[in-house]
Amino acid sequence: MASSVKRPRSSQAHCSSQTSRPADRVEGEGRFVEGSIVRITMKNFLTYDLSVVHPGPNLNMIVGANGTGKSSIVCAICLGLAGKTAILGRGDKVGLYVKRGCTKGFIEIELYKVGGNLEIHREIHVENNQSQWMLNGRPSNQKTVEEEVKALHIQVSNLCQFLPQEKVGEFAKMSKIELLEATEKSVGPPEMYEYHCKLKNFRNKERELENAVKDKVSFMEKAKQRHERNKLDVNRYYEKKRHLDVILLLQKKKPWVEYETTRKELEDAKKERDEAKKQLSALKQAQTPMLRKIQQIDDRMKPTDAQIKSMTAAIKDASNRCKQKQDQLDGKEKEIDDTKQILNLKQKEAEDQQKRLSNTRRTIDDLKTELAKVGDQQDVTPQINAINVELRSIQEERAKIEGERADLRRERDNVFAESRMLERKLNDMSNMMNAKEEKLRGRHRDTHSALQWLRQNRSMFAGNVHEPMMLMINVKDPRFAKYVETHIPFRDLRSFVFQRKDDMETFMTEVRDKLNLKVNSISAPEKSYANDQPSLRIESLRRFGFYSYLREMFDAPDEVMSFLCHQYKVHDVPVGNDQTKALIKTVIEEPYLKVLYTTEERYTVKRSQYSKKMITSNSAVNPSQFLNITVDAEGKLELEQQMRACELKLQDIEERIKGLQKEVTVLERRDNELLAEKKHLSEVKGKKRQLEQKISTKQDSLRHMEHNVIDLNEVEKGIKEKIAAVNSQKVSIVAEFMAQIKLRAKLTMEKAYLALDTMGLMKEKAKLENDCREGASELKSTDQKCQRLEQRKVQLTEQCKGLLKRGKSICRLQPNESLPEDLCNAFSKLPDTLDEIDAMLNEEHSRAECFTGLSESVVDEYNKREQEIKNLEKELQDKSTALDTYRQSIAEAKECWLNPLKQLVEQINVKFSDFFRSMQCAGEVDLHTENEEEYDKYGIRIRVKFHSNSHLHELTAHHQSGGERSVTTMLYLMALQELNLCPFRVVDEINQGMDPVNERRVFDIVVRTACKETTSQYFFITPKLLQNLQYADEMTILFVHNGPHMLAPNQWDEKAFIRRALKRKTST
């Protein structure tokens, strides 16, 4: 549940309320205002099994002790008339208003209505939190009920009409604007609040239109300014365009002028070329005889040149053959040198072979001498055997030690792995504590900052200082965290706990005063309550489903646990399961149980100070937010002990391994000494055998060398024969070489004679060429001139074609199309020479370039903006017309709203002031606003003065006391009473904070005002009344009783009670 709901201890409790006899009701029905409550029936609703209430048409005083069910009637009125649970400020679910232990309940309210009363029936189901509605016995729905209630001017959400106990304090907190709206709804005509809403909407729309018109005007002014600036740009654009048109015409004419100029150059080039051709022909005829003689000489020289070339090839061939023979002779000479080198190598090898034979014989003699000496030494075999025995013993000892070391290493690895595992578990627990700290920092940063300060300054404190409880409390099972967290408020969960009070004062001075941190601190009780015993043993409560006390569900340091046991009795709060929930009616009857928990709920059991009966309230147990992160403190301590044991064990193992290592070192040293001695003895024993083997090997090597001795005589004989064969080959090669030399010399002489004949012919040819060289120079220059002129003519022809084509292309003419007449006329107005055209083009370009940053878009933008300005002017006119219309509507609505409102507020002020004046106080009500045009800022201002030496002060939630606010609220509601259009008004326990004088005065005013025939129905709920109050006949007193022996409503008979009372009185 979201909030506690009062419940009776006994399921047989009844509440009966009776106002008058049925006949009296018939007589009084004519005074009921339409919409007044005629009857309220409640079944299985909050504290009631069944109750029927018949209120009167005027003032209804509902009186009863706390917890008897007065406010239950208020709840029934609200929920029965389709009000929301939020209005009551209690449970947020309608199912919570059904009596505990029941699955459903209902409310039935009968409202007075001309032509037939209206009965509203609401049946509430706990299981699905749903309601079923009926109107006059016919099924209906909540929306239809709300419409019927609204038609009777009933507003249970309006604090000026319906003021439940939990909302009394909110009335004084209402702003002036909220109070005005509530007053309009309560006592104003229906159209008043509608006009007010319309005015607020009209004003918002007017403000929007004003802003829109202002924006449009501003935008239009800026647009016009930009339009004027653009007009100058448009004129400049057209001026530039005129210059560009002239440039275009000049560019069109220029190719035609160039074409005409080039065509004239072509005609001149043709004439000059023809003259050069004639001159070239005359020169060629004068050179013909000498050229013929030169040609004859060339013909005679051709056979001679051929013979010279043939002889040159033959000479070259003979030279190549001579070179080949020379190369062969060089090869034979090299072959002879190689053969002599082989002989030298064989001679050196023979010398080396003789040296090796001599050395081998000498080595054999030395080895035989040494062998003779070794044969005289004693046998070392027994010594070697003794060393082998000792070595085996050392090896066995080392193997034993290595086995022990391996076992210790395995044990060390296992202990180290166990230590790492324990370290990981401890780290996981530390991470969980860090997660708790992160939650604390996210929820209350100041407390986290103070925690960091404490950890850095623990030396400042003499006693134990514990970090915030939420970090020190360790819930044994995450499922239990929600009970602990529900039982201990968060303000204490984030509190620091101190063993000494002086430490707490030091801490608060440093943290709160100096660091300006908002933190809570607690001083633990001087006497320890941590081990206090519960009132009942848990075994005696197991039959109800209880399985543990709250203290047993978590661990905490002694000072923290002592505070929790002393302050929150955690050692005496049992926790149960679903069985406890099922047996809750029996459980709450048990003595000593003040607070208990079921699986999902917390129950608080109190004894009423009036009736001495048990009052039970319950609320939902919310899920845990902070303590669900649990760390097993005993487990952590055990892990730390195991960790220390592992460290000690690792140290012991390392010491033992080091001792074994020392033993191994000693054994290795002795083993090395024995091996060295064994090696020496083995060398002595094997030296004789080695010498014999060496002698045998050397003798075999000597025999092999003697068998392979080199014969130098045979080698020299073979070398000489090979050199003689090579020399004979050299003789034949030399003869062939000399023959080729002679042939080359003969051919060279013949070539020289032919060259002399050729030189004579060439001399004659040179003389002829020299004679005609002068005429040839003139002929050549003339020929070159003809070629240049021909190229010039071709170039000019192509240039003319290109210029003609370009001119037609620029003027967009077809190839066979001539220049149009209009274009010729335009060309005639322009210069006719290229220089003049270029000068005019430069001038026009310069003028056009003066108009920079202009394009055709300037004209488009100018025309577009001109159209936009026209559209803006039309929109502005429409907006201005709409604004005038709205202002007219506002003026009409304001006249219909403000004048009646001022009259209404004045009437309220008169009544309110009279009431205060009758109490020797002062008070006034006025319509307050800072700007008459801001209709959403209008409000009702209440100003009061309770003391003669003070001034009028506005009613606020802070300036006046609680009793003064209650008096003001009550008198304001009474001022509305006679003006009220609502059929009834409900005020619940508003006199609780008043002093007796003000309470008596207010009561007299309520009686006088609410008992007039012109006023509507009024419900005044109070748990007490002063003595000797003035009552009126129009009042209806409803006494609410509660208990297990109450009569059912249908058995209540006031007349019988009066008769019995009179009878007892007369008998006495």
TrEMBL record:
GO biological process: double-strand break repair via homologous recombination
Subcellular location: Chromosome, Telomere; Nucleus
Region Disordered, residue ranges: 1-27
Described function: Core component of the SMC5-SMC6 complex, a complex involved in repair of DNA double-strand breaks by homologous recombination. The complex may promote sister chromatid homologous recombination by recruiting the SMC1-SMC3 cohesin complex to double-strand breaks. The complex is required for telomere maintenance via recombination and mediates sumoylation of shelterin complex (telosome) components. Required for sister chromatid cohesion during prometaphase and mitotic progression; the function seems to be independent of SMC6.
Family recorded in the similarity comment: Belongs to the SMC family. SMC5 subfamily.
Subunit (UniProt): Forms a heterodimer with smc6. Component of the SMC5-SMC6 complex which consists at least of smc5, smc6, nsmce2, nsmce1 and nsmce4a.
Protein name (record): Structural maintenance of chromosomes protein 5
Organism: Pleuronectes platessa (European plaice)
